[in-house]
Amino acid sequence: MLKPFHKMTIGIAFLLMALTACAGSVPTRFYILTPLEDAGREAQGTASSPRVTIGIGPVTFPAYLDRQQIVTRVSANELHLAGLDEWAEPLKDNFTRVLVENLGHLLPADSFTIFPFRGPDRVNWQVAVEVVRLDGDLGGDALLLARWTIYEKGDNKLLLTKKSRFSQSSSGPGYGSLAAAYSRIVEAFSREMAGAIQDLSLQRGNP
């Protein structure tokens, strides 16, 4: 016959096993950033050929965002890593791809490629982006801080340098709402960059 102490020990062991099984049954949720609603459609330009080929990148991210878990900000000096909510791909890659898709929609007469640049097309301008911060708090605001520069690729002539700040309120308390707020931030950033590229094209007399 088992002694009461042994019975209690076995009971605790079974309880821990049950809790572990329950925890293991909760699926991980994956999120992505999405481009402009019409960015996936083939844009129709007004010119028969691209006016300028623009290379986007390198795009750099802070090390604290180089992970699958979604990072939220608790305070100025404290971050939180989500337990079961992750990015479906590296955030930097997702951010860069959505940025290029948006630009291709907003500036359909131009051609865009992602760093490292490969292929026969000659890159005329290069846009380097340094993301300083991209985070937020659940149910609160999402924030992007970025520095970016446009160079003339041939002689590395500096054409423009800017520092951008965008924020968006989450529409709900969950990680899905936060990811949607990030997507709206990338849209706003894309529009600012597209406007700057368009102004440069006019100033430099590109057809």
Structural description of this entry:
The longest helix is centred in the last third of the chain and has 29 residues. About 4% of the residues have low confidence. This protein has 3 helices and 8 strands, in the order H-E-E-E-E-H-E-E-E-E-H. It has one domain: Rossmann fold, CATH 3.40.50. The strands form 2 sheets. The protein has a 5-stranded mixed β-sheet with strand order 5-2-6-7-8, with helices on one face. Strands 1-4-3 form a 3-stranded mixed β-sheet, covered by helices on one side. Helix 2 packs across helix 3. With 207 residues, the chain is α/β, with parallel strands linked by helices. Helices cover 32% and strands 33% of the residues.
How would you summarize the topology of this molecule?
Elements: H1 4-24, E1 29-31, E2 53-60, E3 69-75, E4 78-87, H2 91-106, E5 111-114, E6 125-136, E7 141-152, E8 157-169, H3 175-203
Parallel strand pairs: 1-4, 2-5, 2-6
Antiparallel strand pairs: 3-4, 6-7, 7-8
Helix pairs in contact: 2-3
